[in-house]
Amino acid sequence: MNKIIETFLTRLTYGESENIKKETGTNGVIETLARVYEKARNALEYRADHLVRRAAIERILKRRIILDKNPKSVTSHLLTELKWARYLAFTEVDQNLFSNLEKILQKYIGKTYDSIPEVWISKIASAEIEDILNLNTDYHDFTLLTFQVIKQKVKIKDENIELLIYYAVDKVYGQSDEEQIAYHILKLGADWNLFNLAKNHKDTSRIIKFVRRQMPPLILLRDMYFYSPSEFKKTISDEAKFKKSAGEVLENQLNQMSGRIQTASIRSIIYVFLTKMVIAMGLEIPFEILVYGSLSKIPLIINIVFPPVLMWTTTLQNHLPDDSEKENLIKRTYFIFNNFDKLKDETDILTDKIEEKTSTIYSIFSTIYIIIFLGIFGLIYFVLGKVGFSFASKLVFIFFLTIIAFFAYRISQIAKVYSWKSGAERSSFGDIVSVPILSIGSRLSRGISKLNFLAFAFDFILEAPFKK
Q1: What pLDDT, on the 0 to 100 scale, is given for residue 367?
Q2: How far apart are CA 212 and CA 169, in angstroms?
Q3: Cα separation of 418 and 215, whole Å?
Q4: What are the CA-CA distances from residue 370 to residues 213, 322, 378, 429 (Å)?
Q5: pLDDT at position 465, please?
């Protein structure tokens, strides 16, 4: 067995260190209000479930540190609020945890760092606190194993290539957000500049795309472990047991997939609905009445009905792997784990671009992209005008079209978690056409999460008064 695999196996706990506390405290009025608030806030911000607590920690720290610079006091309030919202079980909080969190906050509260922007101090502090609260060390070990796997298959010549791979794997396989990735890189002993280098490097997007294609077998391997940690050693020692277990786990995961897709769809519709109401009540309707003297019924009805209908129809198009795809995925999972040394010799590796060809291809692609971009949005704008949309209504329609397209794309990625195909992935004409819409949707989604009026209301009208 490969030494990297052997080392990986020795680091796993096999479930022996699990210490999940079941007690969650009382159901008092404050606790209930805190939980309701967090659920509403999470629907508004549209975060992945495993990133919700870190974001909550960051919000609490930002609010508390404005008025309180005492690490001990901030720690006490932080733990209280996390317990209220059930991000932390009451029985998990002991003196040892309190002391550890206080030590972390002592490093950040009132401190400045030459290399780290001030706005990132609370973000990194929240990531470190989340790291302390997360007892699942095995998950991180699987991320490190995946880093070693990908490293065998990336042949790009760059002095920082391992950093770029680490960034991509942590983002795609570890599903870490930017704050967590920054903390993980700093934890390795690197400085802030290396995080920025990895984030903005010209090859990072290529590596991320490559990593995403390689993920399904490695995700299945991780799922096999967490399905039955205590049996994992026995499972991997026998090919028949391995493939049988992989099949059972895969089937179980796929059965849950439809539920995840439905949940993601509902959350997206809620998010879009809340944003739609703010825009409609605050901008669209007043603008129509002020400028045109009345509301156009057909455009207004279309703008109200269109978002949920589009989300529903796009969700129906998602499909899970068939029997053949499942069999190939299981075979690939077994091959990776038992033929680690052969991975570097495979044909589907990522290599350096040939600069001369790259420059020409990039110019051609950029030209085509601009033509498609102008053509798509020009056509949409023209058709909407024929239907009777005003300028404001057109902007609202295009806004929600791009946002929903982006959400639908994110939901489709859930269905593709276990879709693995050997060789390079080829883009269809539909993929090319959708790029401009998804690009705008992604940018708008990030902008909304920062500037959303409802988020502002949550922060300063609801959160601050009730959490003192």
Answers
A1: 81
A2: 9
A3: 8
A4: 27, 37, 12, 15
A5: 43
User: In which residue are the tokens 């934890």 written?
Assistant: 187
Per-residue tokens: 395: 């902007």
Question: Tokens 């993929």 map to which residue?
Answer: 431
Give CA separation, 29 vs 133, 228, 229, in Å: 25, 38, 38
Evaluate whether 208 touches 409 at the Cβ level (below 8 Å).
no
> Which positions ≥6 away from 88 have C-beta within 8 Å?
79, 82, 133
Spans in the chain with pLDDT lower than 70:
17-30, 33-34, 36-47, 90-91, 271-272, 274-284, 294-295, 354-362, 422-433, 445-468
Q: 134 by DSSP, 3-state: which?
A: coil
Alpha carbon of residue 31 to chain centroid: 27
Q: Are 188 and 234 in contact (CB under 8 A)?
A: no
* Residue type for position 43: A
Whole-number Å distance between alpha carbons of 93 and 90: 6
- Residue 28 CB: number of other CB atoms within 10 A? 10
**Per-residue pLDDT, 412:** 80
The per-residue pLDDT for 362 is 62
CB 296 within 8 A of CB 388: yes
Instruction: Find, among 337, 448, 392, 465, the residue nearest to 5 by Cα.
Output: 337
